[in-house]
Specification:
44% helix, TIM Barrel, alpha/beta
Length: 287
């Protein structure tokens, strides 16, 4: 396993971590101040400043990307499926322009939450079938842009509203069905917040292998968790054995960034520079 204790070369900042403190240009400037060399921006943050400006800001700062958040939300009623398809194609185009190595996919839950305005449903099995079909369709388009897709399984608490793909096994089953050649076009983005609890996770990481491990996200799980969405912990403040999970992905040959992604009302209330300084210190000591 790589030694992160002497620097933060392999730290990437998911820009949601400081989304309340400034726009994407301010975040990029702050990363430059702190010697952070990679980011994973969110589409709404890119849209807020414009794609062309975002591309220029990334290039001028000499930043790499560890991913692009996010595509997905595939589940919709018939009236909204074309909207979902077109939105995901735009995500691929934006990721290509920004130089991202992959588009991170959050699958979507039930249609009324995935695509607002869709007719309500309680059919989670049907939702999972739609996710499979939606990824298949998006994959065809992404291949034309040579843009890998990374399915991110989310904790089961999000099954209804955000992602009905809830385990690494489920995500890899989709990968094996749609990309059996393991060409690198389809894989997984593993976030410790979502996978740490899974008794199968180490075996599934081994199953993924280097070809399927496209992104690795870190934060921590607090006890108690006051808000399942916006109360993530800074690494070291919770119960996740982060080093064990990083060791497992690196044992398969993953050599990319450890991307810090913290949705937290707590950390959003602190100055951006303080958050980034803490991220760097914890990345060295905990990740």
């Amino acid at each position: 396993m790589r030694d992160f204790s002497n620097g933060h070369r392999w730290l990437s900042l998911n820009t949601a971590t400081v989304r309340k403190q400034g726009d994407l240009t301010a975040i990029i400037d702050a990363c430059a101040r702190h010697g952070i060399r990679a980011i994973d921006p969110w589409r709404d943050q890119v849209a807020a400043i414009g794609l062309d400006r975002a591309v220029k800001a990334v290039r001028d700062a000499g930043l790499e990307l560890s991913g692009y958040c996010r595509g997905g939300m595939f589940v919709a009623d018939a009236a909204h499926r074309i909207e979902a398809r077109d939105d995901n194609r735009r995500a691929v185009d934006e990721a290509k322009a920004l130089g991202a190595p992959c588009v991170v996919l959050v699958a979507g839950g039930l249609p009324q939450y995935s695509r607002p305005g869709s007719a309500a449903s309680k059919d989670i099995a049907g939702a999972r079938a739609e996710v499979h079909d939606g990824i298949a369709e998006m994959l065809d388009y992404a291949k034309t842009a040579n843009m890998p897709l990374a399915i991110e399984p989310l904790h089961p608490a999000y099954a209804a509203d955000r992602a009905c793909v809830n385990t690494t096994r489920q995500a890899l089953d989709i990968c094996d069905a749609l990309n059996p050649a393991r060409s690198g076009a389809l894989g997984v983005a593993l976030d410790v917040y979502h996978i740490w609890w899974d008794p199968e996770v180490l075996a599934q990481i081994a199953r993924a292998g280097k070809e399927r491990l496209l992104a690795f996200h870190v934060c921590d799980w607090l006890v108690p968790t006051r808000d399942i969405l916006n109360d993530r912990g800074m690494m070291g403040d919770g119960v996740i054995d982060i080093k064990r999970l990083r060791s497992a992905v690196e044992a398969q040959g993953f050599a990319g960034y450890s991307e810090i992604e913290i949705f937290s009302n707590d950390w959003w209330s602190k100055p951006m520079d303080e958050v980034l300084q803490t991220c760097i210190a914890r990345h060295r000591a905990i990740v």
